[in-house]
Amino acid sequence: MLKRVLVVIAFSFMATSAWAFSFTDTKGHTQSLDAYKGKWVLVNFWATWCPPCLEEIPDLISLHDKYSKTKLVVIGIAMDYRDPKQVTEFADSMFISYPIVLGNAKIASQIGQVQGLPTTYLYNPEGKIVAYQVGALTKAAVESYINGKKPAKK
Prior knowledge:
Blueprint: E1 7-8, E2 22-24, E3 30-32, E4 40-46, H1 51-67, E5 72-78, H2 84-93, E6 100-102, H3 105-109, E7 119-123, E8 129-134, H4 139-148
Parallel strand pairs: 4-5, 5-6
Antiparallel strand pairs: 1-8, 2-3, 4-7, 7-8
């Protein structure tokens, strides 16, 4: 069950503010961490051919639909694709409601290592990477994590 639990990042170099990441999604909108200040941001690296990625997509859709206006947004970064049109058609066929970015090594470098797919990074409302997961995650694991954490006091 370790695959179902978000792994807390203990390295101080990983828990730094990252307000600088900025991507353009498939609809032409800019997705930046700064734009979501005050919300949890879940960045998910995935591929259309990846079975665990496909397994978690319904949970990511549910999380984004439930929380995007209040406390958490999901950004999907498609990796290892040949044709951008294939990614957008796939996302449409899966009714993916969260922003999709066409990823590459340069985009991934703004977040962190992608050792396997799926890989997910979670930023807290203060903009610090606080958790990551290599492998599929669940809605329940994400909700448990974000609902169990209190915002930092100022």
